[in-house]
Amino acid sequence: MEDKIELLRGKIGDVDCDNKVVVRGRCPYCNDRATFRQIKYGFERSKITGQTVPLQCEGCSSIVAFSLTQTKFYPAPMLKGLEGLPEEIDKYYQEGIRCISADAPNGAVTAFRKVIHAIGIHYGIAKVNDNKQTLYKIIQELCDHEHIVKKLKDALIGVKDIGNDGAHINENEPDIEQALKIKHLIDTVLNSTILCDSNLEFVKGKHSKKD
Ligand SMILES: [Zn+2]
Fold first, then answer.
1. Cα of 44 to ligand 1 centre, how many Å?
2. Do the Cβ atoms of 68 and 12 come closer than 8 Å?
3. Do 206 and 117 share a structural domain?
4. Judging by DSSP bridges, how do beta strands 63-67 and 44-46 pair with one another?
5. Among 58, 65, 67, 89, which is 20 to 30 Å from 204 by CA?
6. Residues lying with their CB under 5 A of ligand 1, a single-atom ion
């Protein structure tokens, strides 16, 4: 996984590692994959984070706490999501992303389920407070109107079902792995619909200027 933390030296926290680059991972502040320099030797001990060493991001110079016990940054890096979505879709999408970063899979899948509804509203297929129209119908109509291909329709139905499981107490409650899979599916759908539309408009705009 691209957000994996790599330890570049042994004995991190030791005096030998002082002022050396010791870790590579996603920075919680600049959100880039960066290297981190140990800025002080010795550990801090915390009940929550265990043995912790202060590191500095070589990209943005922010100081992060690195838990050696858990191989984890504090604060935790935000998951990177898609950019350029319209506001009415982005608010649910970003909520899903924040839930994954906060290790809240039930919240994440519920928010991603709302993303599907918001895509339906965007294309004039669904309305706000649309109780009559089930999510299944919205997905079916997205396919009928050729916004999505059948494969994506099937994928979205998977998202809808897991989203249901996230909203009620049951045996199939989603874990963070499933929430991440759903995020990838939602990304695929958004890339091939909403973001594809704006790319198309951009290309058409360029073309008409040439004529
Ligand atoms: Zn940084």
1. 21
2. yes
3. yes
4. unpaired
5. 89
6. 27, 29-30, 57, 59-60
Structural contact between residues 83 and 195, judged by C-beta atoms closer than 8 angstroms = no
Q: Are residues 94 and 166 in the same domain?
A: yes
Place of tokens 């933390």: 5
DSSP 3-state of 113: helix
Q: What does the angle CA 19 – CA 21 – CA 24 come to, to the nearest 5 degrees?
A: 145
Q: 65: helix, coil or strand?
A: strand
Q: Which amino acid is at 74?
A: Y
How much is the average pLDDT of 194-201? 86
* 113-156 tens-digit pLDDT: 899 899 999 999 888 776 645 778 888 999 999 999 998 888 87
Domain coverage including residue 152: 87-210
User: Among the three residues 40, 74, 108, which one is the final residue of a domain in this structure?
Assistant: 74
- Going from the Cα of 77 to the center of ligand 1, the distance in angstroms, rounded, reads 10
Establish if 205 belongs to a structural domain.
Answer: yes
Give the pair of three-digit tokens for residue 135: 């999510």
In a domain, 105, yes or no: yes
| Per-residue confidence (pLDDT) for residue 121, from 0 to 100 | 92
CA pseudo-torsion sign 127, 196, 161, 113: negative
Count of domains forming the chain: 2
CA of 67 to the centre of ligand 1 (A): 17
